[in-house]
Inverse folding.
């Protein structure tokens, strides 16, 4: 029984850390550009397909393929921002939101056109054998996922808190006008935020595709929504909030699937979100403010 | 003189194709078909006679089979297989001179539309088939989509034969028949096989709650296993489009299950077996006929090695040799059960036409009762219920290949 609980927790931790990686993108973009980038989930999908193209079509070894995937997604994130969101910086939030949904559909339909709707099987590039700790089996992929996400989170935290570019990001999210008066290039900082967010989404996409091994144009939609929920749960705009929200969400989902009901798992996840928002409207780690989405 | 002859031919060809337009079919497409034939006649006057004879055959004496199935989306493999299987059968029949009904000989043609295995898409797809004009319906390939149009086909009074729609209600109406097994029958056959033949007593089930096919098999399976003194140690649900099965598998891992039964489609089966492998589970897998095609969906055939599922057809078997050769030549792929179902459906329609001596829908439907056809998927005897009444066979995945089980 205990073994089972630990294994279920590990399952939740693995899914949750992928959610957290994606949620970071949502929350950073929201913090800086004050917009919900609904196309973020589809960057995961682009990342998965990019890896597929790099490995199968270009025959690259795993490491360069992963790097190429991350760079592709980061560039894509910046391009999307420049083309779709930058012209709307002064527009009402609703216009930006609808544009984001449009970009999301654009990405999905583009990959539908290029790769077709039939799922493509794709072999995991992470081949680490499962490890047995006592009676608990931990799959190799779980270990890799946990290590990669931990490294990403530590690096991101250090970057935001210790570097000049990180300070610039914090300053822009605090007050755009004042930051630009202090000599911070706001446009470049926003581009950088999109690049970092999309980079993390690419990492999440790679981990996701290694886990599920099947490519579909809509594969980013569900993790995208779940990660958005995680970001809101943790307090949108807060980086530690997104990490905690993602991991919490994964664990709640896994435990309710295992011990309550598979059908009700999603309802429970969203129920928790409703309760948290009722009690603490700004999310678990969010700052109290009167911002409207 | 020659010119006059040619123009005379052309006129007769056009007149005949007009007649085709006026017949009960809407005939837009057949009339167009005859145009190139007319052009040929003009280009090659000496062959004009033969072509002029051929043209009305294509225009008037064509029996159009409408097809519905997923050609794209997650169940695309089924739809494409059925379509290609049916095309092979149609080509064979046409090459052999067509179907003789009374004094007329009919050529068969297929008008196949994509329904994406979706309840929403299938209705307009069916309606557009009816607008094009069809004599009988081959479809749908999947149960869910089929249930959405059973009442429509009944209202239209058209002969409907589903190659692989296995939900009970797919053939509830008098005009509908099927080639495959029903869902409960599959559940029963698998339960008998696992408990009686394999001696398994503790069985875990993973099924799709949002799919009639999966729940239909699972309900009967659990019932029969219990009757036989076996025990369902875990009955874990998932939903359409779920990709993460680790919670269900971890739960099964903590039970003393001896085997896992997965009544689901091949894509789900691919996810489940890969994740079970990932978690270091080595329980044997058993599946329903939706598993056919799983080898193309998994990234490593070792994930499904030893899995056993129910299927009426195996390409490597001697009885299927001619079909397999023709199919491989045409599509450079090995035919699966669905291709064989599609092939058999066309032959059943041919048999019904010959027995009825007419191509009127009502006569065809009446002829289906008591019709016996020896097909690739076994000998089928149809009755008013619409069932094919045939035996079950089991397939095991051995060394990355499908093979009939020894017992």
């Amino acid at each position: 029984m205990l073994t089972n609980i630990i294994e279920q927790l590990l399952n939740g931790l693995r899914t949750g850390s992928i959610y957290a990686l994606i949620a970071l993108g949502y929350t950073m973009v929201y913090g800086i550009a004050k917009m919900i980038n609904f196309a973020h989930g589809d960057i995961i999908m682009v990342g998965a397909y990019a890896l597929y193209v790099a490995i199968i079509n270009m025959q690259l070894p795993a490491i360069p393929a992963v790097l190429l995937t991350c760079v592709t997604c980061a560039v894509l994130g910046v391009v999307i921002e420049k083309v779709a969101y930058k012209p709307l910086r002064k527009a009402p939030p609703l216009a930006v939101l609808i544009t984001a949904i449009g970009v999301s559909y654009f990405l999905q339909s583009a990959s539908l056109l290029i790769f077709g709707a039939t799922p493509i099987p794709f072999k995991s590039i992470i081949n680490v054998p499962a490890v047995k700790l006592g009676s608990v089996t931990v799959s190799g992929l779980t270990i890799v996922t946990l290590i990669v996400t931990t490294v990403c989170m530590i690096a991101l935290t250090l970057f935001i808190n210790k570097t000049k570019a990180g300070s610039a990001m914090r300053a822009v999210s605090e007050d755009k006008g004042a930051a630009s008066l202090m000599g911070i290039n706001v446009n470049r900082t926003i581009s950088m935020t999109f690049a970092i967010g999309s980079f993390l989404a690419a990492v999440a996409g790679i981990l996701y595709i290694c886990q599920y091994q099947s490519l579909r144009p809509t594969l980013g939609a569900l993790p995208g929504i779940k990660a958005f929920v995680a970001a809101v749960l943790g307090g949108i705009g807060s980086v530690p909030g997104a990490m905690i929200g993602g991991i919490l969400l994964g664990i709640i989902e896994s435990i309710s699937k295992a011990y309550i009901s598979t059908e009700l798992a999603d309802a429970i996840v969203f129920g928790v979100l409703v309760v948290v928002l009722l009690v603490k409207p700004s999310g678990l780690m969010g700052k109290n403010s009167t911002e409207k989405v | 003189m020659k010119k006059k002859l040619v123009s005379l031919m052309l006129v007769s060809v056009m007149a005949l194709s007009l007649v085709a337009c006026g017949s009960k079919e809407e005939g837009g497409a057949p009339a167009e078909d005859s145009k190139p034939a007319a052009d040929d006649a003009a280009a090659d006057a000496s062959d004009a006679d033969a072509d002029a004879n051929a043209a009305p055959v294509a225009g008037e004496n064509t029996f159009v089979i409408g097809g519905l199935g997923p050609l794209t989306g997650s169940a695309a493999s089924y739809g494409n297989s059925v379509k290609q299987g049916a095309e092979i059968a149609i080509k064979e029949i046409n090459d052999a001179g067509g179907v003789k009904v009374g004094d007329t000989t009919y050529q068969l043609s297929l008008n196949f539309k994509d329904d994406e295995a979706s309840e929403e898409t299938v209705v307009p797809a069916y309606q557009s088939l009816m607008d094009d004009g069809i004599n009988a319906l081959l479809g749908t390939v999947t149960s869910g989509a089929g249930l959405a149009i059973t009442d429509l086909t009944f209202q239209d009074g058209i002969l409907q034969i589903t190659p692989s729609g296995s939900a009970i209600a797919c053939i509830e109406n008098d005009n509908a028949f099927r080639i495959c097994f029903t869902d409960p029958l599959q559940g029963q056959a698998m339960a008998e096989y696992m408990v009686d033949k394999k001696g398994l007593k503790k069985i875990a089930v993973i099924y799709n709650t949002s799919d009639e096919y999966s729940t239909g098999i699972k309900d009967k399976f659990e019932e029969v296993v219990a009757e036989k003194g076996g025990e369902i140690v875990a009955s874990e649900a998932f939903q359409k489009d779920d990709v993460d099965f680790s919670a269900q598998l971890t739960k099964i891992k903590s039970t003393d299950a001896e085997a896992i039964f997965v009544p689901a489609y091949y894509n789900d089966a691919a996810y489940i077996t890969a994740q079970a492998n990932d978690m270091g589970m080595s329980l044997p897998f058993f599946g329903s006929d939706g598993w056919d095609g799983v080898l193309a969906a998994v990234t490593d055939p070792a994930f499904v090695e030893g899995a056993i599922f129910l299927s009426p057809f195996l390409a490597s078997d001697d009885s299927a040799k001619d079909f397999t050769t023709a199919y491989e030549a045409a599509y450079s792929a090995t035919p699966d059960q669905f291709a064989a179902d599609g092939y058999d459906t066309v032959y059943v329609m041919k048999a019904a036409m010959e027995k009825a001596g007419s191509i009127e829908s009502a006569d065809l439907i009446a002829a289906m009762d008591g019709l016996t056809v020896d097909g690739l998927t076994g000998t089928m005897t149809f009755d008013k219920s619409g069932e094919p009444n045939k035996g079950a066979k089991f397939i095991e995945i051995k060394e990355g290949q499908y093979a009939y089980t020894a017992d």
